[in-house]
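Hi R.,

Here's the chain you asked about this morning:
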Amino acid sequence: MQNSTDLSRFLEQLNIKDSLSIEEDLGDGYVRLKISEAERRQAFQDINCVEDIFLELLRNSRDAGSKNIFIGTKKIKDKSRFIHFIDDGNGIPENLKDLIFEARVTSKLENGIKDSYGFHGRGMALFSIKLNVRDIILTFSGKSRGASFFLDINLDDLPEKKDQSLIPEIIKTDDDVNIIGGVNNIIKTIIEFQVQYRDINFYYGSPIQILATIREDLKRKNQDIDYPKFNEWEELDDFISRKNIKVTEIPALTDNYNLMEKIAEKIFNMDISKRGIQRIIYNEIQPLNPLKLELLNHTVIDVHTSGDNNNGLKKINKKDLKLRLFDEARLASRFKDEEIKVIIRLLKDEFNRLGEKYFLNVDKDIKFSRSNNIIKIIIELIDKEGK
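And here is the predicted structure, written out as tokens:
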């Protein structure tokens, strides 16, 4: 079949066109479904929050056969969230890179996928995301090359859970795994998905952590492969075009600061400082561990029946594990109270010294408070003459 006309004629001859519910054959296995078929494949939930977007992106990557998913995210002044969503799946053919954001376009011709979240495959996920975000861009893809998406979300239009640093507890009962507690935030969404699809590696962190991890992860997995190194964008771009290079391989193709900066910008739409790029090249950024249950830094509770002698009581063993989740929105919390009090003492001494000529003193109690990335220090002045 060369085009949609040929396909339509063929199906009409067999009298099965309506049963397949195809409106248009887009090539490379992609089709546009009829409205009636798309409606039949209704999703379990609409996109009502940022976490719903993560879930739809995860399901798309799973369906594309991804084995490694890299998620870089950054929150901007509680107003916006940037997402860099990268996978090593089947990728999207060049001629379809714009069409995938249109309604009812899907690669699931034969069957959609029924999972624990509902039906997936009606060709509405990326279309629905596009309607709910400020911007979504396919920054790099190609057939068999994986995909890299960038999203800019206005949090006033599409909210997210307030506490994104809270990690839930895992309860293991014999061979069963349950996730309890916490809030339904981004990390819980990813962990719940990982529990169901343990053959996929999920990496979650800041954009600079993700770029460093993609680079180092490839080196670890392909130690025997001698990747060429490039210093100029034109040479690298030509190499990527001629070879079947996945998006997750590109960061390992240079040790040049300027070229790595261009890769961050052009391939992933990441805004990383020159100093950050240097830290990546110098291996100063600790690569992320995958979000595996055995590596999470929350408490795992292992529950099992202890036997008849204990009247069937359940024994609970708690294990503190080792993954550290980056805390993007609470930079102020990195300062200890004692460290802030040292700063306050210095400020108080300097205010009192300068205040002498204005007959002012600082009140003995200087208060401070934290709010995300801000430390507020409240200094109350006393007029010495007005005692």
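One quick note: The mean pLDDT is 79.

Cheers,
M.
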